[in-house]
Every structure is written in C-alpha cells, then in structure tokens.
C-alpha cells in the first residue's frame, strides 16, 4: 500500500470539500453522532502543540449520577534525532511530556496516556540490539516511572506510560510494557504487550516476547481502565478479554506507519468500542525517524534508513459508535475528551451484545481449535 503524505488529516478534506447538509450526512455516516467541541482558548498553553477538546455526552439517568471523566491523549514526534545519545533523548522527551501533562492539567484531564514506547525512538525496525536495548528500564523503579509519579501526584492524574521494560528479576529480559501510575503518584501495575508483530519493518520480536500479564483491568478513581498495546488492536479477542474483565476505557498506545496500517486505523479501535461496550483511545506516534544504518524489509525493496511516516491521527471512540475527529497526521497533539462512563451500560442495555455473545459456543470452538487434532467444521457434498 502506498503511503499518503501530503495532507494534514481526513477531516480537513471533508471540511474543505463538503458543505451544509452534504458535510453533515457524510460526517454522520463516517463518525456517528456528533460530539461536542470544548473551547479551551482561555487556557494558556504552548501554541505549537495542537490541542483539541471534545465532549461525548450520554442521556442523564434517574438513579445514577453522570460519571464524567476527562481523557488526555498525547502524540508526539521525537524532538531530537533518533541517533542522539540516550539520556539526551530521554531528557528532551521528558521536557515535552511535562509540557503536555501541565497543559492536560489546565484542561481538566483525569487520565493521561502516551503513545507506545514514548520515551525512545521506535527503533525496532533496525534489529540492532545496541544502543536501543539500553532504553529498557524497570517498570516500577525506573527513571521514567519516577519522573511521572511526581507529575501524577502533583496534578491528581492517572498516567499510562508505555515503555521498554527491563525485568531485572527474570534474567534482565525485555518487554513492551504499559506502566499505570495512579492519581496519588503510586505505581498501580503494568501490562505487557500480548501480540508482537512480524510484519514489514516491525521487527519487535527481535527484542521482546509476547506478554505474560493476561488482560488486567486497573481500578482507578476515574474508572476501570485497560491497555491494548498497538498490534493487539488487530486481535478482536484481545479487546474482548479486556471487556470481559470489566474495562470501561481501553487505551491503545501505538506506533504505526501509513504504508502499513492507515486504512485500518479508524476501524479497529472504534469497532472494539462498539462490540465491547466501552470507550477506546487510539494514540499513534507522528513523524519520520531516521537511523544511522540501512536495513531491508525482506521484500526485495531497496534498503532504507527509516520506518516511513508515523501518522498520528489519535482519536477517542465511544461504545455508541461516535468518535472524535483525529489529531493531525504530522504534528504533536493533545486530544482532550470528556466522556460519561454511564454510556457503557446504556449501550450494553440497548444493543444486548454482551447478553447475546454466546461465549460458551466460542469457548468450545477455541478449546477444539487449539488442539493438534482439530477438525474445521466444513460441510461438503457427499460423494455417495
Ligand atoms: N507496532 C506494530 C504496527 C501495527 O500494528 O500497525
């Protein structure tokens, strides 16, 4: 698939080329019920950061009060060259992060989420172990978690920090891990990426193995949250499992490029929200990261020094199928979205997907499908 580079975002094309009822008809068919825009102009923040804010309301109930939560999704390109020294890169990213978290606090954000492996270049295309493995650090006691704990406590904010984890307890193995810090600055736990890609230049299996933390849901003061890391978004059962464990918001911190996945990007997390009756938050990195040494993709194409363009386009999707516009395809951005978690149960009641999901039927099929003597259920015309 060829990479599309020359436009800021899909919504701009709709805005420029459709008017009046045509625009609203197409927008509604593409994005569902309209979301409300929140005016943050009164909030002073770094003007070279695209900040957009929306509200996804749901009908008020008689017995339950609204459970409004503000989510902040931060997408960014690395601020210094990918080949910079590790500590220099981390410090530059920490500075960006602090600005984004401060802006989030001014915007009333309760839960903040970074993109995948936010504190390093996404260097897994190179298959080089050094220096990239040196970015790995302890999930609970490493410098990145320590840095964020302070901010989470000061700003009463839950922070989801996807990083490269070094598990010193188990032979210094490396994992692709999301660390969850609660709004008191306490380390709440972690989740390791369940599904590791072997596609294109995503040579992540060179560095880490499939995760072993299952499908944890973290109970926070702002709702039950889970993290489906990047490639896991292509696996519907991965989304289902977080839903079965009671998630109300599932974050999908990602790093993915236009040539590989852009037409799928707006479908997968949004479909998961609809099918599982929860909110999903798709966050993707932006920019192009160039490395020192050439590498090939094993597809006969010429060797190259970059992954291609990470296309940002972060968005929030609701269980009723509505979604926010995406952030820019090329700029750093912060997407603030206020959601009412009551919508999760309202939509489950309305559609009944959880009542009709026939888990027993699929449990039986899956139990048979994993066995070496599995026989697919194929009906053929008998020869007799
Ligand atoms: N990080 C893997 C790329 C993708 O899932 O699109």
TrEMBL record:
Residues in domain CN hydrolase?
69-341
Q: Matching PROSITE patterns, A to Z? A: CN_HYDROLASE
Which top-level enzyme class is recorded in the Swiss-Prot or TrEMBL entry?
hydrolase
> Transferase among the record's keywords?
no
Enzyme Commission code: 3.5.1.6
Q: What is the lineage of its organism?
A: Eukaryota, Metazoa, Ecdysozoa, Arthropoda, Hexapoda
Q: Which organism is it from?
A: Hypothenemus hampei
**Biochemical pathway:** Amino-acid biosynthesis; beta-alanine biosynthesis
Record InterPro entries: Aliph_Amidase/BUP, C-N_Hydrolase, C-N_Hydrolase_sf
MF terms from GO for this chain are: beta-ureidopropionase activity
Q: Does the keyword Transmembrane helix apply?
A: no
- One Pfam match: CN_hydrolase
Question: So what does this thing catalyse?
Answer: 3-(carbamoylamino)propanoate + H2O + 2 H(+) = beta-alanine + NH4(+) + CO2; 3-(carbamoylamino)-2-methylpropanoate + H2O + 2 H(+) = (R)-3-amino-2-methylpropanoate + NH4(+) + CO2
Protein family according to the UniProt entry: Belongs to the carbon-nitrogen hydrolase superfamily. BUP family.
Q: What is this protein called?
A: Beta-ureidopropionase
Q: Which PANTHER family match?
A: BETA-UREIDOPROPIONASE, NITRILASE C965.09-RELATED
Q: Which UniProt keywords apply?
A: Hydrolase
- What SUPFAM superfamilies does the entry give? Carbon-nitrogen hydrolase
